[in-house]
Amino acid sequence: MLQPHTGIQGYIRISPSHGGAVRVGEVSSKPLANVTFVARNDSGTVSEFTTDDQGWFKVELAPGHYTVTRKGPQKGIGRYGPFDIDVVTGQMTRVEWQCDSGMR
Fold first, then answer.
1. Quick check: pTM over 0.70?
2. Domain map of the chain by residue range?
3. With contact defined as beta carbons under 8 Å apart, do 51 and 5 qualify?
4. Which residues pair with 41 in a beta bridge?
5. CATH class for domain 7-17+28-100?
């Protein structure tokens, strides 16, 4: 049974956001906007969510252990998880995840 306000929330960034060397003081990551992820447990896919234009998301999940990955087949370079997370009863667990664009 889904508990009220139980799940995960936070934001996802991707880095590096451009190829080549990073200069001092230069931001080398950006929000991972409008990308869909799936949350799975031992039973399979439980939920899907999509980041907003600033990389933020919120998804309600029942208490338990989940693995979160980008939806669909992995294409090209880059890594978008997996991210392991434990959801606790009655809490929205806050996360800040970093994906690797694969650019160098």
1. yes
2. 7-17+28-100
3. no
4. 44
5. mainly beta
